Every structure is written in structure tokens, then in C-alpha cells.
Amino acid sequence: MAWRAATEDDLLASISNAELEAYRAAVTKPGQTDPVTRKLADVTNMVRGYIAANADNVLGLDGTLPDKLIGPAMDYLAVDVIKRIPRREVSQERSDARKAAIRLFRDVADDKFAIEEPEEPTDEQHGAPSPSFEGRDRVFKRTDQDGI
Is 102 domain-assigned? Predict the structure, then answer.
């Protein structure tokens, strides 16, 4: 398995083409760029945040996700897309799929779900910084306190 960028075709595995076009019509103003591209980038960055929360995970190149997390990322995004379509309700199945995706992302962060290492890792630093402690240099010692 490899790391790759999520595409519109990946999103179409979670929603229909008609729903995607209705979303575009509902949120796009004349002259505005395609909102789907932005939403794909947003969900990719969110999932990468969950991956980076575990210091043992290695991130792939910017804008990429492990193959096994692309489907859940699209299930998460499907709800965002559908709730913006006028007179369209989010089904219980899609809501449940989104909740399952969030649980999976949390499992990745908690090291309960393994992801593959990327073929081309990024130099991006992630994870919580480790605390470091050094001993204090004492200016005065107990023997210096005689007579005070």
C-alpha cells in the first residue's frame, strides 16, 4: 500500500455524481474555484493531523494519505458535502460512517490502528515534544551557609 492524494473519484465512492454536482451548484459562485478541491485538501490535512498526533507515525509527502485511510476520509467528507445541498438530509448510514471514520482516525492517533510507512517520507516534524530536564547548578551549597 502506498500514500497518495485523495481525488474526486475517491469522493465519488462515498457520494453520487448527482450529489456532487448539486453541492457544486449550491456553494460555487460565478468566478469561484472548484470547492471540491479545497474540501479534499481540508480533509486530507485533518487526517494528517490525526496521523501526526502519534509520534511513531511517519508522514508521507504533503497532501497524501495512506490508501487505507482514504475511504474513511471520504466517508467523513461526504457528510460535509451533503449537508450543504439544499433540501437534502444526511442519512443515518452516512452519519454512522462518519462516526466510524472519526473513531478510526482516533485509533491511528492512539496507536491502535497501524498505517504503512510512506515510500517518500516528509521532513515535517510532528507529535508532542518530549520534555527534557536538566539538573540545577546550585550557586550556594549547604557548607556555604555556615554562620548565617
Answer: yes
pLDDT of residue 82: 92
Instruction: Work out the angle between the directed axes of helices 67-82 and 17-27 (0-180°, nearest 10).
Output: 60
19 is a domain residue: yes
Domain count for the chain, please give it.
Answer: 1
Residue 127 within a domain: no
Position 133 in a domain: no
Structural domain for 24, as ranges:
3-114
The residues pairing with 66 across neighbouring beta strands, listed in sequence order, are: 3
DSSP for the chain reads --EE---HHHHTTTS-HHHHHHHHHHHPPTTPPPHHHHHHHHHHHHHHHHHHTSTT---BSTT-EEHHHHHHHHHHHHHHHHTTSTT-PPPHHHHHHHHHHHHHHHHHHTTSS--PPPSSB-----SPPPP-------SS-GGGGTT-
Better pLDDT: 146 or 67: 67
Single out the residue of 47, 42, 71, 75 nearest to residue 60, CA to CA.
47
